[in-house]
Structures are given as structure tokens and as C-alpha cells.
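Hi F.,

I've been meaning to write this up properly since the lab meeting, where we talked about keeping a consistent format for the predictions we share between groups. The idea is simple: the sequence comes first, exactly as it goes in, then the C-alpha cells exactly as they come out, then a line or two of notes. No screenshots and no reformatting. I'm using this chain as the first example so we have something concrete to point to.
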Amino acid sequence: MSLALPSIVKQFVAFFGVGVVAIIVHYGTLIGLVEGGGVEPVPAALAGYSVGGVVSYLLNRQHTFRSGRPHVEAGWRFAMVMGVGFTLTLLLMALFVEKLDLPYLPSQVVTTGIVFLWNFAAHKWWTFGR
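Output, unedited:
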């Protein structure tokens, strides 16, 4: 007997895999800017989010959602969703790092988890949805 996973579970797993790649790029940018470039954590987190977002778009369009939606349409939708995620990242990182004086990496981990859930839902049902 074969256990077939529902398509949303398969997409979530694929989204998670793509997310790991995007997070490596995001955190690499964040840590490089903070530790090597002397940039403050909040703007470094936003730069990392932006660079990781490009990776996320390219891989999710191709591998996770297999969208046939034209780039011209999917692109602006993706940008809108990422804009909300960017704003969430800004607000959460400013709260954790600047207001609560928490370390930037654990703060980014919590922020990433929250934004990840937003991004999956919005991309599934709006950016790449039918």
C-alpha cells in the first residue's frame, strides 16, 4: 500500500527545500554584512531578505509551484508578497534587535519562521495560484 502525500504537503516540502537555499543566501548576506562590513543588523537583514528573495522566486516558480503564469504577472505578485515579507522582517528585526536588545541571529531565525509561513500561503494561493 502506497501512501500518497496531498499536493499541498508536497508543495510545502518543496517550498521548504527552496527556502533552505534562499536562507543560506539570506543569512550569508546578513552575516557577511554585519560581521565583515560593519552594517547594522536590521539593514543587513533586509539586504539578505532581498537577495534571498530573487533566489526564492526563480526556484519556487520552476520547482515548487510549476507555474505557467507569465513572468510579467507572477513577477509583480511575487514582489507584492515579498514586500509584505520585507515589511514584516523590518518590523520584527527592529523590535527584537533594537527595542528588546536581543542578538541578531536568533532574532532572524524567529523572524524567518514567521515570514516563511506568510510567504508560502501567499505564493501558493495568490502569486502562483491558478
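Notes:
The radius of gyration is 16 Å.
The mean pLDDT is 91.

If this format works for you, I'll send the rest the same way.

G.
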